[in-house]
Every structure is written in C-alpha cells, then in structure tokens.
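Notebook, p. 212. Picked up where the previous page left off. The plan for this session was modest: take the two constructs that came back from the sequencing core last week, fold each one, and keep the raw output in the notebook itself so nobody has to go hunting through shared drives later. Recording the first one now, exactly as returned: residue sequence, then the structure token string.
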Amino acid sequence: MPLPQEFHDIAARVNNWGRWGADDEIGTLNLITDEVVRAAAATVRSGRRIPLALPLRQDGVQTGMIPGRVNPLHTMTAINQEIFGPGTVATSDDAVTMGLQAATHWDGLTHVSHSGRLYNNRPADAVTAHAGATVLGIEKATPITSRGVLLDVARAHGTDLLSGGHAVTPEDLDAAEELAGTTVRAGDIVLVRTGQLRHYLAGDRQAYAFPSPGLSLRTPEWFHARDVAAVANDTLTFEIFPPEIEDLWMPVHALHLVEMGMLQGQNWNLEELAAACAEEGRYSFFLSAMAEPFVGGSGTPVAPVAVL
C-alpha cells in the first residue's frame, strides 16, 4: 500500500533535512552538545550503574521473523593454545556471527528508506551490497552520552506490562513525563518502557515478538517538538505490531530515521532501571550508549549503562 497522505503530512512537520547542513550525517545527535553533556553529568548522585543490554546469546530475542537477523552464534577458535611452543603462555580466542540488530541495538539512519530517499535527501541506493551504507553509516555516530529520561508508560498506566495492542500515544508520554517529575528537554535520550520485555525475560520469546505494544504514528511529533536526540524502548519492533493502520508497516521507523535523522533503539532491558527510578523517585540520569563503529553498518549492538 502506498504511504498515505497522513504519513506525508506528519513527515513534512518533523522533517530535519538541511537543518544541520546539506552534508550532515548524524541528524539529531547534533543536539547532544557539550553543554547538554555537562548538564547530564550533573544528574549523577549515587554513582549507581545499571546495565540496559540483554546478554548476547544464541537463544536471544530473534525468532526468525526478520530474515538474516540471526541471534549471536559464539564459536571458540582457540582453546588454551600454546602458539609460541610448549610451556609458553597459552591463549583462548573466539568469534561471533550475529545480526548487528539482533539484540540490544541502535537502528542507524540507513536501516530504512522511503520513496527512494534516506535522511537528508540522500538516495536509498547509497546502501550497496559490498560497502553497505556508503553514507550515513553507523560509524558516523558521534559519542552517544547524554541525559537519559525514563518514560515508564506501563507504570503510568498502573501496570507492569501494557497489552499487546497498546499504541503508545503522545498522551501516554505526557502521563509518563508527569510521573517522572521532569521535563524532557533538547538533547535528551528518551527511554520508553512498555514492560514487553518481561515476556522474553520469563522465557516466552514468541509472546515478546508478537503482538507487541509500541510507539504510535502520532509520537514522532512529540519527540520532534522537544528536540529529543534519540529514543529507545523495550520491544522487538519499536512501534506497535501489528501496525495501527492496516498494511502501513514501519511508519515510525521511516519518520524517525529518514525524516528526522533520529536513532532509535530496540530490545533495551529497562526493568532494573524502572525499579531503581521508582525506588529513588527520579527518572533522569546520565546515559552512556555508544554505537559500535561498524563501517557501513545500518545498525549496531550497544551496551548502554544508566548512571544514577
């Protein structure tokens, strides 16, 4: 189905093409300025560090629904091998094969295209079979450290887990922001908790994948109005799945990545963080979420850490 007029209308309102110049390749990461990082560092009080990444394992979150996005396959290439001769220091070494977006990850700006274009009006065919992303590759991402804000939409609804058909709306984000007792500001990285990851953590990979709550078509304007630098959540598909508009697949991806130039993350484990934020009564923190610089990558694994 062609993209509907509603999509194009929203795209025109959130479009950032040319905002940081015709040659820009990092989009809303431009909003993470030195001043933003200094202010983010000031949120650290206790020094409590909370990891937000899932373990990289062969029985990870991928179900085969997305072709080629394989869970990590870990192989030992050497085990206690005395490579310099008998009695010398022995080494063990290993290798891994995985989809770059298999587990906790950032979607890069070339992960999706629409109407033949990528962010900042680059042609979609700039992604090639041999070189990958020849522009806008994930290696271009600047250091991703900023103030993180947890918007616990599930808790704002008085539950640990939103229903599979719940499309997170701007009103939901407003309610979670009120619960957080803070105002999302320019350069922030917003983490949206639905509770969906609880299915996977309980051992039910299929229930985690489908059906899934997620961000609705109306939320990109919310993030754009606040100049958010990046958004991540605790679901496999990021946006509601199946889609809220029949046969309109991945519109939020297209609005974030193509129109806004905003990275988005999936499969982030926000459970421990949500408990800590509720316990301490504060939902903002210093967040480190550096992108692994895979040259030409359309996404990357990430091991984010929130520091309270």
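Okay, moving on. Second construct, recorded in the same format:
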Amino acid sequence: MTADNEQAIRALIGAALATAQRGDARAAREMLEEAQRSHPLDLNIKLNLAAVRRNLNDFKGALTTLDTILSMDPYHFLALLSKGALLEQMDSRRQAAVIYRNALKLAPPEDMTPPALAEPIRRARAVVAEQAEALRHHLRDRLGGLLQEHAGQALARFEESLDVLAGTARVYNAEPVQLHIPRLPAIPFFDRDYFPWLPQLEAATDIIRAELMTLLDEGMPGFAPYVQYPPGTPENQFAALNNSRSWSSLWLWKDGKPQREPLARCPRTAAVLEEIPMADQPGFAPTAVFSALAPHTRIPPHTGSTNSRLLVHLPLVLPGKAGFRVGNDAREWKMGEAWVFDDTIEHEAWNDADETRVIMIFDTWNPLLSAAERELISALLREHSQWLGHLPSPGLA
C-alpha cells in the first residue's frame, strides 16, 4: 500500500469517527461500509466498522466483522479484545473468557500498554479469572461424590490438574538454570518417605536454633547479602535485593567447601549436618546456609540450578506470618517441620511479619537418581566447570 493510500484510509476513518462523535452513528457506519468496499483488505476499517455496529446494537453485524478480521489475522490483538468485550455484552461470558484468554496472550507488557487499553485489558483479566473460578467450583461440585468416594487416597496431583484445566492454576515445569536431568518428574514438594533422616533433622531443631540465636544476639556476624551480583550482571527480578541485607545469609557449606569460621561458631549444627546425606558434587555441593529474610520482604519468583539435587528447608525463627510457594503449592513454615522441594520449579518466599525470619537451607540428592547417575553427574559438572575455567584442571598448579 502506498503512502497516499494509507493517508486516504486514515482520512476516511477519521471522517467516519468524527461523524459518530457528532451523534450520527448510522452515517458513520455507511461511510465505513463504503470505505470497506473500496479497501476490502484494510483491517483498521473493519475494526472501526465493528465498533460502530456495536454502538448501534448491531451485535451480529459487529461479530461478523470481527470474525472476518480474525479470519485474515488470527493474532489481531484488538480484534480479539473487542470480540471478548462484545461477547460479554451479549451475556456470553463463558465464550468471552475463552476469547479474552487468547487476547491476553498477545497483550503488551504493562509498562508498554497504551492508556486507552489499560482498562479493557484489566476487564479481560477479571472476566478470565472470574470464569476460571466458576469453572473450578463447577467441576469440583460435579465430581464431589467421586472425590468423596476416593477420600484418603493421594489425589493432590489430580486436584491440581483440575485447577489447571479450569484456569485457576498454571503448569510449572522444572527450569534449571544450569543442568537439567531429563525424565525426572517435576515434583514441587517431595514425599517425606524418600528421606528417612528428616525426623532426625527435625529433632535437632532446638540445637541448631540455639547456636543461631547466639549469632543473632551478637549482631549476625558473618551474615552478608544473599544476592551479590558482580557489576554488569543483569539483576532482573533481584534488583531490589542485590547487595541488600534484606535477604542475608551465613554459609556453613558453600559450593562443596566447608566454611571453617561459621562451622566453628556452630559446632553442634555442623555435627548434625555431618549425619545428613547432603548432595556431594565437588565444586558445587554440598551447600548449607542460614537464610535470613527481613520484615516485610519478598524473594521474587525464580528457579535454581539443577534438578539433580533438591533443597531442604528447616525453619528456625518464625516471628509471624511468612510463606513459601513452589509451583501451585503455597505453604507456611511450622517450627519443627522440614520439607524438601525441587527449586528448579518456580518458587518464591515472603515474610509479612514485623521481625526477621530465619531458616536453614541445604541440598540433598534427588532420590530418583541412581548411584551411577549421581557419580556421573558429579563428574559431568566438574568437567564442565573446568572447561569454563572455573576449576583448576587436575595436575595443574
């Protein structure tokens, strides 16, 4: 299309919209219909024609026009958004939610959304959420008898699948930032039966907590910001926490190396960890750390390095409301109770209390790996690191 044609079309649309603003929507419709006959492939004319037809309560005509646009361009964001709004106005909210959901996949980022689209997009999100919740309740109600019949059985993954189908939950997969082991299931929180040593760890909570409290009373010596990106590193979601003591840590083991001074300050904790089968990946694991989160601080959603190992959380200081989410599963810590989770699934934490929350974190092997796989994974990580120059090669000074 030449520049002259584009200018002529803009002039036709502008004249029609000016006519509509003067209150003569019928004349505006005729002008746009005439423009459409002259320029049958122009989608902007059709989009404005659909809007004028909708204002004239010609819903059928408006819907036909929007469907014509979408037959020519199935990814036309404004046509999808307009179709959703039209279906909503026609009291077809379920169908509107389906169209809105497709439109939202194409929506611009919030910081790039034109002001005129902010409210329509907000409305689309509201309708999608409302209908998802309505479908969730409908499905649970319809399946209530069958769910009751199987009460007591392990149904958590089925119930999550129902929520995903309804749209109130989303699919989370393992997304390691370093090493992905294929064919391992993405399990947010692992069953305790995989870790027969958990009761032993939990029984030592008071021992570990006593040594931690001594450190806290001394002003947290050795604690440093958990996130410390070198200059020039993209901070992304961690910009607010980079080099901030709002999320601070004291490493007992780091990248497979014992941290002598912290372990010397916490000898009984060190003894407990010696009895726990932590991950053994030279240069990478084990790691063990006291993690302190300041009041009213949130750790943003993120994923960990490899699904070959899992993380263990043991709560030590819980001053008030604090929570943790892995995938669709959100929980609150309880004193004396540890859990094991796959940190390569998106997770986040928050402390809404007025005082600092502290937990101990350490890693353990994914129990679904064989002994052979564990040995090979350790060797693989070591060789990869040497290739990148992060570790000295054997036999070199």
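Notes on construct two before I forget. DSSP finds 14 helices and eleven strands in the chain.
Flagging for discussion at group meeting.
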